[in-house]
Write a structure and sequence with these properties.
Helix content: 55-70%
Number of helices: 5
Distance between the termini: 41 Å
Oligomer: single chain
Number of strands: 0
Largest sheet: none
Strand content: under 5%
Structural class: mainly alpha
Order of helices and strands: HHHHH
Length: 153
């Protein structure tokens, strides 16, 4: 089993190194993207976040997987033009990068994701992913009418 632990330690170390390098590039790409929108740059940002999300899930880091997942969901909508990149979305994505960096730092120091509650960040990113309501539009009632929690379909 020691060989397995050594291999996992190696995988984790590589994940941390690559993630930190990717986060440095993400910071620059997000700021550049706001100045010069580019489908290629958006695709690169998506791939980076997707890679961090997938590997964090594989390694069992649920908080990290959760925040990267909700951030990742914004990017295809930006690429398809369903959402316009603005200061609020850029700020939210930069907050995502900061959150990921904090969690990675915790993992590096003690092997855990830390005790921080990332719900406000997840909620912020999810809210940015919702299309703005049309002026004068009334909210739609939930579908299903069962009164219970809505499940993603």
């Amino acid at each position: 089993m020691d060989a397995d632990n050594g291999e996992m330690d190696e995988v984790l170390a590589e994940f941390l190194i690559e993630s930190y390098e990717n986060l440095d590039r993400l910071d620059r790409d997000l700021v550049d993207l706001e100045q010069n929108p580019s489908a290629d740059r958006l695709a690169g940002i998506f791939r980076t976040i997707h890679t961090i999300k997938g590997t964090s899930g594989f390694l069992g880091y649920g908080k990290l997987e959760s925040i990267t997942h909700v951030g990742e969901n914004l990017l295809p909508r930006l690429r398809e033009g369903e959402l316009a990149l603005d200061a609020a979305i850029t700020s939210g994505l930069l907050a995502l990068v900061d959150g990921v960096r904090t969690i990675l730092s915790n993992i590096e120091s003690d092997g855990t994701e830390g005790d921080a509650d990332w719900t406000p960040l997840v909620d912020r990113l999810a809210a940015l992913n919702r299309p703005p309501a049309a002026p004068g539009a009334r909210p739609r009632p939930p579908r299903g009418g069962g009164g219970g929690p809505l499940r993603p379909g």
